[in-house]
Specification:
There is one protein chain. This protein has one domain. It is built from no helices and 4 strands. It is elongated and about 50 Å long.
């Protein structure tokens, strides 16, 4: 099966973290990436804060295009 490629995908995505009530905790930019596994997608790592008390949370995410691994 051929490796899937999304030619229409942007170079980066903005990820917004907010509560179910709409309170924003922060945003991260997920940059396009080719992973060591051969899959393609996006990766983001950073911190967001609880706006009520300032407590920081570490965030890390991989967003993988299904079928992109060779």
């Amino acid at each position: 099966m051929a490796k899937k490629v999304d030619e229409d995908a942007p170079k980066a995505l903005i990820i917004e973290f907010k509560t179910t009530d709409g309170e924003v905790w922060g945003t991260l930019t997920a940059e396009g990436r080719e992973f060591k596994t051969g899959s393609t997608g996006y990766y983001a790592n950073g911190k967001v804060k609880n706006p009520k008390n300032g407590f920081p949370y570490q965030v890390g995410t991989n967003i993988i295009l299904i079928g992109s691994k060779e």
